[in-house]
Amino acid sequence: MSTKLTLSLDKKVIEQAKIYAKEKHVSLSFLVENYLQKLVSEYKSNTENGSSIVEELTGIVKLSSDYDYRDDYTDYLKKKYK
Q: pTM of the predicted model, to two decimals?
């Protein structure tokens, strides 16, 4: 069953995607649907294997041992409500 979907994308991206789709002899809808399906299947595969986005991102950011997030958060709030 097909359902209509409206997306807001950068004009240049849409133009490039249309050219790509035309060269591959497929519709833009087909490209978007297949891309989303790939994302969903990879996500399902990762979650079924016990992996999660949090586990994947763990350890990416390295902070010094004396880093205190509360100082940064306080600065953020001061700027926000200035």
A: 0.51
